[in-house]
Design brief:
Rossmann fold; 4 helices; six-stranded parallel sheet; two-stranded antiparallel ribbon; alpha/beta
Amino acid sequence: MTVPAVSFVAKSGTGKTTLLERVITELKRRNYRIGAIKHDAHSFNIDHEGKDSYRLTAAGADTTLISSPEKLAVIKKHSASPPIEELINTYFADVDLVVTEGFKLSGLPKIEVNRAARSTTLLCRGEQVDATLIAVASDSRLELDVPLLDLNDPCGICDFIEKHFRLRAGGNP
């Protein structure tokens, strides 16, 4: 992969999305171009019955692209989820960093989100040790073999990401 990527992983209900919103906002404030990918283990539908794009897909189109002056969306049918690296290489060449939510089984570098009220155990340092874990963002003190970041300090998390990936706004690495 040419674009650096980091996956935020955690047990459901830990606050991954909330943290990512704050991290993306701070990275944008620092003038980075950010891509985001959300993993959904279930089926989802962004195309709704009655819309023209829905009708084209329902008619049999394998790929449907919706384009407007502000954004575009691609609906692509597939029999299996493409590898995360393929998604990044295909869709994110124009960004400085890709952040993902989920993809805990991927080979991407990971920051695990831990909230003491949700769980006292970690996904990446439990029964198995995930060698791709680069840090843990938590609201409690933990003894770890990777850096411990303050879950409530998105600026500090962004500082860590900048240093770890040697980011420079507008052209990386």
